[in-house]
Amino acid sequence: MIKFHDVKTTDRELIQAYTLCGDRQNCDLSFANIISWRFMYNTQIAEVDGFLVFRFYMGHHLAYMAPVWKCSWNEAMRETFAKVVRQMRDDAITLGHPFLMLGVCANMVGILETTFPDTFDIRPDRDHFDYIYTREKLATLAGKKLQSKRNHCNKFRKMYPDYEYKPLTKEMIPECLAVEAKWRELTKEDTEGAEDLSEELRSMTRIFDMWDETGAMGGTIWVDGKLIAFTFGCPITNSIFDVCVEKADTAYEGSFSIINQEFARHLPEQYEYMNREEDLGLEGLRYAKLSYKPDILLEKNVVMEKYPLAQFEDQQRIREETVSLWRDTFHDPEEFIQLYFSRVFRPEYNVICQVDHHTVAALQTLPYQLKYHDQKVLTAYISGVSVREDYRKQNMGSNLMAQAHFRLYHKDAVFATLIPAEEWLYDWYSRCGYTRHITCTPPPAGIDDMDFATFDLWQQSKPCVLLHDEAGLDIIKEDFRIAQSINPAAKRQDKDIPAMIRVINAEKALQLFATCHPDRTENLRIYNDSDIPMNNIYFHMEKGHVSRTNHPLPGTRSLTIQELADYLFADDSLEMNLMLN
Question: Which is nearest to 444 in space by CA: 577, 307, 331, 315?
Answer without folding.
Answer: 577
